[in-house]
Specification:
The structure is a homodimer.
Chain A (H helix, E strand, L loop, with lengths): L1 E4 L7 H11 L5 E3 L6 H11 L2 E3 L11 E4 L6 H9 L3 E4 L3 H15 L3 E5 L5 H7 L7 E4 L13 E6 L5 H14 L2 E5 L5 H15 L2 E5 L5 H13 L1 E5 L15 E6 L5 H14 L1
Parallel strand pairs in A: 1-12, 2-3, 2-4, 4-5, 6-7, 6-8, 8-9, 10-11, 10-12
Helix pairs in contact in A: 4-5, 7-8
Chain lengths: 276, 276
């Protein structure tokens, strides 16, 4: 049986970069878990002594270096960190830094700010905190803007993981109703690249193994796409693999969620090879 | 029979303003006919001695004042006019001045310029001439942009008489493909207000009289909307009215194309009253 990895899978650029930063920052702590994968969190703790704290108040004098994770953090929290007399290592994804900078600059220029995203998501909490005024509207649909009267000049950014077609619904509404709309396309394609790659590979494969957390929404999304096209399994570790699955199969496709480290993917591939 | 005028009809704000400017500028010439209505052109010539020339070279030393019409003119022609030692009276519609200013300012700031409109229309020839660089793309559909690679920062304006839904097709394409798209909604609603008003009135009326040039596209549009809902006639002057039309009618609706002066509408209403 042939095994083929999807053209794009697993860590996005920002997460890969953050993990490298953590590996190069022994004895630091991260503010919140670095990624949504307990095995990878454990590996960073065991191999590099990089653990995590849940909030700034847990940082005591024994901690010298603090890593800000890919989502970024609100401006006032960053300030509070800097006052803690620790070295701040910023692993905010550059694609998240960008909307933070845009919101800061555009609000300074007097634009009202519309953010397409979830106001409870850490990324958006960070991005919105960079506005220098309070005319900031965080919405998921144009309906949420209908009872509001914004000023004539509006700048807009999107949460990096959102779908473009949903963002266009917001921008269309704004263009229809306001004189100037400055649209920054801050959507990152990594999530969709993984999905496209699964779609392509699962159409050719006889079986697909998707590696990732069973409660990770992006992993489930990959699994749902795969099983439309061939027999598919979502697993968290190699222990779940069953040799029966691979009988009479010619091509096994592999993909992994955005928080799944490469070493775990490799471990699973080795195990499949042993079995078949 | 009751006679009712549509809530909005005839001259738009810019044309009304231009005619007033002409009436206050006796002995001036306009560069090109001021509006597409021969009766109104004749009235301005007879009552105010405001005639027109077809191009700048026709302006001789006897002409002291030149009126620029609502569409505006290219920057170099305006310059040439100023060098002629004549007083330039600018009747460019303020809603057309706006995209001219935007294109000038945005091109100075280094933005590539996308103009949604017809490159052969006088308004667009004027607007595009205000760019200070040559990275200006005049298009009617997104397809015309597909073989072009623009820079990352794009500013876009629309011809004032275009439909918003068509403009959004362009802006959606740009947002999908470029990092920053600065959208200026320069569409003027006057044309659509006349259409909406005809739609509303023709649903209640027994007969609609539309006044305007038989080759005027906006007038024909009004006529087409009206005749969907009731018996309708498109006429250029009161001579075409036929008393038979009004027999057994209770409500007669009146509308007029964007180049039809109010005095002509009133003349037609008087004639209908005489007939019925």
């Amino acid at each position: 049986m042939k095994i083929e990895k999807a053209k794009s899978y697993g860590f996005c650029f920002g997460v890969r970069r953050a993990v490298e930063i953590a590996e190069n920052s022994q004895n630091a702590v991260t503010l919140g878990p670095l990624i949504h994968n307990p095995l990878e969190i454990q590996r960073l703790a065991e191999n590099y002594n990089v653990k995590y704290v849940n909030n700034i108040d847990e940082i005591d004098e024994n901690i010298k270096r603090v890593i800000v994770r890919t989502h970024g953090i609100p401006k006032d929290k960053l300030q509070k960190l800097k006052e803690k007399n620790v070295e701040v290592i910023d692993a905010t994804c550059p694609f998240v830094k960008k909307p933070q900078e845009i919101v800061e600059e555009m609000s300074k220029q007097g634009y009202d700010i519309v953010i397409f995203g979830d106001k409870n998501h850490p990324e958006i909490k960070g991005v919105m905190s960079y506005a220098v005024h309070d005319r900031v509207y965080v919405v998921l649909t144009p309906d949420e803007l209908k009872d509001k009267r914004l000023r004539e000049k509006i700048a807009t950014v999107a949460q990096t993981t959102r779908k473009l077609s949903d963002y266009l619904k917001i921008t269309n509404y704004l263009i229809e109703n306001y004189k100037e709309v400055r649209v920054f396309n801050t959507i990152c394609n990594a999530t969709f690249e993984n999905q496209d790659a699964v779609r392509e590979l699962s159409k050719r494969a006889d079986i697909m193994i998707i590696v990732g957390g069973k409660n990770s929404s992006n992993t489930k999304q990959l699994y749902n796409i795969a099983k439309e096209n061939c027999e598919s399994y979502l697993i968290e570790s190699e222990d779940e693999l069953n040799p029966e699955w691979f009988k009479n199969k010619k091509l096994c496709g592999i993909s992994a969620g955005a928080s799944t480290p490469e070493w775990l993917v490799e471990k699973i591939i080795s195990k499949i090879k042993e079995m078949t």
